Amino acid sequence: MTHSTPVALITGAGQGLGRATALRLAEAGARVVITDLDLALLEQTRALSTRPDAFHLLRQDVTAEAAPREAVAAALEAFGGLDWLINNAGIGKAKSVGETTDEEWDRYTDINLRSVFRFSREALPHLRPGRGCIVNLASIFGLLGHPGVAPYAATKAALVGLTRQMAVDYGPRGIRVNAVAPGIIETPLTRERIQGDARFKAVMIDTTPFHRIGQPEDVANAIHFLCSDQAGFISGHTLVVDGGWSIGNYVAMA
Ligand SMILES: NC(=O)c1ccc[n+]([C@@H]2O[C@H](COP(=O)([O-])OP(=O)(O)OC[C@H]3O[C@@H](n4cnc5c(N)ncnc54)[C@H](O)[C@@H]3O)[C@@H](O)[C@H]2O)c1
């Protein structure tokens, strides 16, 4: 079946980066299936758009057995196809290995990693060759060591590897697979820590050459670029979106 405007599926789009990405892709003309644990948040996302008709909402837990099948089916039924999968839903908290229980480890890997594998497997056969792409939400902590985030960072580093491998396996079918690695972006996930932990703020924000915290739109724009034809020869790449924080040792001199 052909369809003229791209169809995107975005997990965890009730707030934060998923919401900003949904609004950005809709603004660019895409139709979007947005999923989240919280339907009220999804309704708020839709209400913020100038193109509310471009949205299809689905309440689901990405770790549920049927979630990938239901989400892909929703895209096919509501919009007649699927082009872009944005694996965004994720959780994170500052914890070292010693502080992490087995249950927490399983939760991190279930939500941040296993669901990405399962959603990608479900979507791949439906993504249109030459147009289909997947963007995974990794993290700068999936590329660099940082104190106290080991379980989270492990899932994000695994996503960087999964991105590369899927790009190799599905490139010959005309599917591109990329990731973004945001630095610290102001969302409900990070707001509390930025406001409550002066040391974290000093290490993460005052050492950013841009001297500001990232905004969800910074990441949404990068994801839109990776989905677009402009990125037609880019695959297997992890695009860092951190205002230059990770290029190293920036300290304001004045
Ligand atoms: N904010 C940052 O600084 C930052 C930096 C690097 C990477 N990331 C990654 O970006 C993604 C989004 O982060 P965010 O800051 O917007 O987070 P957030 O907590 O603000 O939003 C995450 C959304 O995902 C949903 N969600 C969580 N678990 C779910 C589940 N099991 N099923 C369905 N939906 C679920 C939540 O309800 C929420 O709406 C995550 O993968 C995160 O690891 C964020």
How would you explain this protein's 3D organization?
It is a single chain. By secondary structure, this protein is α/β, with parallel strands linked by helices. The protein has a single domain (7-183, 215-240), classed as Rossmann fold (3-Layer(aba) Sandwich). The protein is 41% helix and 14% strand. It contains eight helices and seven strands, in the order βαβαβαβαβαβαααβ. It has a seven-stranded parallel beta sheet, sandwiched between helices. The mean pLDDT is 95. Bound molecules: nicotinamide-adenine-dinucleotide. Residues 11-12, 14-18, 36-38, 41, 61-63, 88-92, 111, 137, 139, 182, 184-185, 187-190 line the site of nicotinamide-adenine-dinucleotide (NAD). GO terms for molecular function: oxidoreductase activity. This is SDR family oxidoreductase. Pfam families: adh_short_C2. InterPro entries: NAD(P)-bd_dom_sf, Sc_DH/Rdtase_CS, SDR_fam. Belongs to the short-chain dehydrogenases/reductases (SDR) family.
Alpha-carbon distance between the two ends: 59 Å
Number of strands: 7
Proportion of beta-strand residues: 5-15%
Shape: globular
Number of helices: 8
* Total individual domains: 1
Largest sheet: 7 strands, parallel
What sequence of helices (H) and strands (E) makes up the elements? Answer: EHEHEHEHEHEHHHE
| Name of the CATH first level | Alpha Beta
- The CATH topology turns out to be Rossmann fold
Low-confidence stretches: none
Structural class: alpha/beta
The residue-averaged pLDDT reads 95
**What strand order characterises the main sheet?**
3-2-1-4-5-6-7
Spell out the CATH superfamily: NAD(P)-binding Rossmann-like Domain
Q: What is the CATH-assigned architecture?
A: 3-Layer(aba) Sandwich
Q: How much helix is in the residues?
A: 40-55%
Spell out which ligands are present. Answer: nicotinamide-adenine-dinucleotide
Please give the radius of gyration in angstroms: 18 Å
